[in-house]
Structure formats: C-alpha cells, structure tokens
Amino acid sequence: MRVSRQIELLDRLVGADTELPWGFGPQSMRNPAAAYTDADRFTREREILFRGRPQFVGLTGECAEPGGYITADLGGIPIAVVRQPDGSLRALVNACRHRGAPLLGGNGKGGMRRIVCPYHGWTYDNDGRLLNRPGSAGGFDDVAASCDLHRRAVAEKYGMIFVHPTSEAPFEVDTVLCGAEDELADYGLADYVHVETRVNSWKMNWKLFLDTFTEAYHIRWLHRTSIAPYFMCDLIFDAYGPHPRTIGLRKDVVEQLKTKPREEWRLLPFSTTQYFLVPNGLLVYQLDHIEVWKVTPHDAGSCTVSTSLFAPEPPTDDKTRAHWKRNLDILLDVTGREDFPLQERVQANLASGALPEVVYGRIEPALIHLHAAINREIGA
Ligand code: FES
Ligand SMILES: [Fe+2]
Q1: How far away, in angstroms, is 103 Cα from ligand 1 center?
Q2: Stretch 4-12: mean pLDDT
C-alpha cells in the first residue's frame, strides 16, 4: 500500500469528528436469522454467488511451476487449475469423462506430466486432452463425442487466481476485484511462496466465517485474554464493490501518531490488512507474510475453512520453518478455540428458530456492508 494512502488512513484516527468514534458507520442493520439457516436461501446463494461468478482459488505460488495444480470445490463444482508448459493456466472440471471419478486431489507445486484417472486409468494431457484409455481394447471406439475434460474460464493477475465454475467465457480479474486491485497490486503477491495449508470443517453457515473477520468489536470480549491486550477494537474500513477491506490496528500505532511528524507515519507495520474476496476468500497481509483463507460451503449449516500461509521466500532452514509453523499455530489457536467454536453455537441458536433476527451495529460497518451486498445480490 502506497505511503500516501497509509497516512490518509491514519488521518482518520486523529481527524475524527466527535459525533461518532472514527470506526463507526452511519446506521445499524437487522438481518433475519434465516439468512444463516434457510435451505432455499442457501441454494440461491450457491447459484448466484458461488456458481454464477468467478471464485478465488489461490495464489500463483501454489502452482507456479509447469505441472503444478490447485483443486477446489467451487459451489459444489469440482475444479482443477493446472499450470501449462508455457506458464499459462488451464481450468478443468475435475471429473473424469468416463464415469465421473475425481482426477486430482489437493495441490501440486509442479512436475505433473499427465492427469491419470484413479478408476480405470484414462489419461489426459495437462491441458485436459484425452490421450489414451489403457486396456480398453477398442471398447470405446464407437463413442463419437470428445472425451476431453470440460474447461472453465480462469484468470490470473497480481499473483491471484480466479476461476468461473460454470462458464468458459473469459473475464477480467479487475472486474472481479471492483477496484481493490489498486491496493492489491502493490503487494507483489506473485512472488510469495506457499508454506503450508490447514483445513478444518465447522458446523456454521459460510457467512459466519466472513463475519468473524468483519468486525473487531468482539476482540475486547471474546479475545480478552489472547489478542485484546495488543489490538484495538476498531477497524479501518473501506469497500470495493461487495468486498470489504478492513485494517486491524495494534495499539502501539497510536504512539507514532503522537511522537512522529505526519509524513513519517506508517500504517502497515502496525496493522493486519484484510481483503475480503466475496464470497469465498480472505487475503490477509501481515507485513512479514500473507495468509489466505478460503471457505467452502456445504449446506446452510456447514462449511470447510482452509488457511494457507505464504512467505516472501521459501523457508530454507528449520528455524524459519518453525517460525512459520508457530505463526499458523497461533492463528488457528485463536480462531479454532475462540472464534469458530462460538460461531458453531451461534449457528445452533439461529437454527433453533428462537431468534427471529440478528443485529449489526454502527460499530460493525464492514459487517453491515457485507450483508447488505450479499442480500442485494441474491435479491433477499
Ligand atoms: S472413471 Fe475415469 S477412467 Fe473410468
Ligand atoms: Fe476473532
């Protein structure tokens, strides 16, 4: 993020008028509990938000080498993104044209030469062309239709990869980011290397995953013994189309505002900058590393959350590897012991039908922006 913007954002802390605290939005919002629990609504969200538009699948560093690949469940559609010999990407439906077996699993950093089905061994080139059907003895010779893998549109820019799960029509990453590229382009994301990914499933609506990161109001209470001593309970919030961008601040940011001239103020060393990639992604800039979160909804009440850590350079020794492992341990300890278990209990309460609605206050402006955008897009 350019220095001038960092200073402008910090101006909000000192230049706030006295009517409202600096992190507040103009008005609160109420949302029906059914937004988190209703099966018909979930079907609509999946069609419109998760299948009807490009989805974030990961960073370049996850499949930088030819033969590298990323697999993803995008609104229930199995997708594999494969790096081609010329460096381009191909997005394929990750289901064998014979009888539908899944072809690739997990991620691969590079070196895969062929895609081989685990069921009967049909073999595809990395671009999805069927190469052979071993042992079939001409048993498919009368099949006239192409059995190449189905393709989907993929785009890569700023080190980020997006796939449209139901369309082959080309799209622009900038159109997906709605202006967030203005900041995201600065981070050099394409150069980050993938260190580790951890995956957990939770009995919560996918939006409760996003809700966890859209406000810092809960820090003072839920995280009072873990991170509250170090972090402010307000966020700097802006939005790019539906995507909130929120910045959490360490408390010691205030000291430099008092002691340094304005032109020497810096935001990034004191902050956690979060770019939401609605509906399924969250990219967090942490100064010395990047965290990438992805949420995969299964139904209205359950989802899988993956957390990946990317470093500026490959870890070459045990000390560095231990450092990154510790980072992920701490992160998943706070979210996995404090945030998401609570969200599972929230989900259970909302599903009980005893609560008609939830309330988002002016102290939670990014939360309000997010839900207003989602509700608008699905016509709720
Ligand atoms: S399902 Fe893939 S080879 Fe039969
Ligand atoms: Fe939290």
Answers
A1: 9
A2: 92
Pocket test for ligand 1, best of 92, 104, 122, 148 (most atoms within 8 A of CB): 122
The arrangement of strands across the sheet holding 55-59 comes to 55-59, 160-163, 154-157
pLDDT band at 258 (very low <50, low <70, confident <90, very high): confident
Range of the domain at 78: 55-170
Last residue of a domain, one of 150, 170, 190: 170
Rounded to the nearest angstrom, the distance between the alpha carbon of 102 and the centre of ligand 1 is 9
Cα 127 to middle of ligand 1, angstroms: 17
Helix, strand, coil distribution of the chain in percent, nearest 5: 30, 30, 40
In the chain, how many domains are there?
Answer: 2
| Cα 241 to Cα 373: distance, rounded to the nearest angstrom | 8
What pLDDT is stored for residue 19 in this prediction? 56
- Same domain flag for 109 and 4: no
Burial of 145 (0-12, 13-18, 19+ CB in 10 A): exposed
What's 19's domain CATH number? 3.90.380.10
Please state, in angstroms and rounded to a whole number, the distance separating the CA atoms of residues 34 and 116.
43
Instruction: Determine which residue's CA is closest to atom 4 belonging to ligand 1.
Output: 120
Query: Which residues make up the environment of ion ligand 2, defined by Cβ < 5 Å?
Result: 339
Q: Which atom of ligand 1 is nearest to the CA of 100?
A: 1
Kindly tell me if the per-residue pLDDT of 367 is higher than 90: yes
> Does 375 lie in the same domain as 300?
yes
Place of tokens 């050099």: 188
Residues 212 and 133 in one domain: no
| Ligand 1 binding residues, C-beta < 6 A | 96, 98-99, 101, 117, 119-122
**The model's pTM:** 0.96
Same domain, residue pair 151 and 183:
no
Task: Report the mean per-residue pLDDT for the chain.
Answer: 95
- Tell me how many degrees the CA angle 168-173-103 measures, rounded to the nearest 5: 45
Together in a domain, 62 and 25? no
Q: 260 and 344: one domain?
A: yes
Domain boundary among 170, 192, 214: 170
Residue nearest to atom 1 of ligand 1 (CA): 99
